[in-house]
Amino acid sequence: MPANKKYLTSSPWQRWMKITAGFFGGYGVMITFFLMLACFFEKKNVIVTGAVTGYVLWALLLLFAFLSKSWWKPWIIYLALSLIFLLPYLLK
Amino acid sequence: MNNRNYNIYFHTHTISGIIVAAMLYVIFFAGSFSFFKDEISTWQSGKSAKEVKNKGLPYQLLLDSLDAKYNLAGRDINFYLYPNTSHCYVNMAASKDTLHNAKAKEQAYVGYDFAERKEKSYAESYDMGEFLYRLHFLAQLNQAIPLRIGYPVGYLIAGLVAFLFLFALITGLLLHWNKLVSNFFLFRPWSKWKTMWTDLHTVLGVIGFPFQFVFALTGVILIVNTVFLAPFSQLLYKGNMEKVFQDLEYAAAAEATFVGKPLTFTPNIQEYIDRTQKKWPNAFFNRVTIKNYGDESMLLAIESEADRQHSFAGTGQITYEIKTGKILMNRSPYDTPTYIAYVKSFIYRLHFGDYGGYFVKLVNFILGLGGCVVIISGILIWLVARDKNNVASHKKKFNFWLSNIFLAVCLTMFPVTAFSFILIKSIGQVNQSLIYQIYFYSWLVISLYYLIRRNLRRTNLETLFLGGVFALLVPIASGVFSGNWLWRTWARHATDILLIDLLWISLGLLALFAFARIRKQQAISAI
Questions:
Q1: What predicted TM-score, i.e. pTM, was given to this entire model?
Q2: What number of C-beta contacts closer than 8 Å exist between A and B?
Q3: How close B10 gets to chain A, by Cα (Å)?
Q4: What is the spatial distance between Cα B396 and Cα B388, in angstroms, rounded to a whole number?
């Protein structure tokens, strides 16, 4: 019954890249996303909302990294998203 | 659902699940009992909460005695109080008044029991309720591994476990999504072992899903909210965490600049407390802060929670300037709560299950133990599914080795907990280190035994039997050693003590029933 191996990442390096992208990259995307919202809405309300929904978002981002077919795409996408979300804060 | 995604959900669910399994079991088991933390404390002390003469904290008396001992002039003082207990803590910071206060540099943190009206340290007031409560977020690991990595190790591990649990729940749900309805009523208890574990895991997992999801999420938030808050405090609050906590209504926003001129009169804190209590009937004062004691700039801030029967989320704060008696800030706990208060209250009420009396707590307790079953069946599926001829023998060995450890550690928690209850009751006077010794040494010994025994079925069967017998002995110990027989606690309406005894009786009977059923099943399959 274990999952069919042909669908799973076999290279340890690629697996490692996906895990780190999902965990650290996902965290970055999640935090910068709420940071962006904090630039437009009352910051303490954004923080308390983020404290509740942020972890679910982070867990989903971790999962999306595993669903990706390539090992570098999640890193690129998450880094790009983090940068975009960071813009309002940096420009302010 | 496409095949690739299905297998990825499957694999990530399996791996995240097996990594956290053992820790999560400990968290679930201890956590289920923690719903009854206060009841366990009263069970141990033998005095029902209603029977303790509790007139509340005598502020003036305590402040006078603390003043004589520590000299309070120029200090910031914090009182921390907790619902349903007579134990509170007082923190006294270093004094800003170096001129008049000879002990200015000293700081102190003391525990005080206001029912007994005496200082009582944390270790002295430690009981089984506190032990299981702290075990459910692995606090004891902080002391076992005194590693400084910016955050206590136990909490960090508990947080990581809770996060991976959340991840495993999401992947688990996606995995079963297509068959959610069709498999819901599928339970084939007496077919192959693997089918049985699978059905148990799926059915209990799906029924318990909303419950488990809530606890995974609120659990992560409560144990490691710093992970989320730290970047915001750095980027939006210039690193001032205290300001963040004030914004999130965790700490009284009361700032006072020390002027160095003593007040001409002795402040009467008790009078302010009584006046505030009259303003906010039945509100619980959870934190009382005094800034610059005895100085002209002295402030008194009282933080409170509304009576939960009247307001689900209300929190209040009032700040008095002592010199003039003026109110500097006033937010009643019975006003419409802020958005932040709502969200926070939602998290706390859901996690502590204290919004609907014993009924809600019992439902949570049962679902919590159901979570334990989901974890154990998960470990067994993991093992059985890999016990095939095409699996390399060293891998099989490892799988068995791991399952053996997990089951030996997890399943023995039930007899060990019941045993500790009995032993603690028979000893009577216990403190923190004695509870540690009783619980952890008995746990170590019995897990080592089953570790060496290397027979999963025996581990399961014998821990059920042992746990069942010990569980039934708990109410007897309560009767023999403190006279709290069931009928006596029933007659004097000591519901909290009675509840714990009844809980153990139900657990004991259930365990022995399961034991008998498994024995019968084995007898049949042996023929």
A1: 0.90
A2: 91
A3: 6
A4: 8
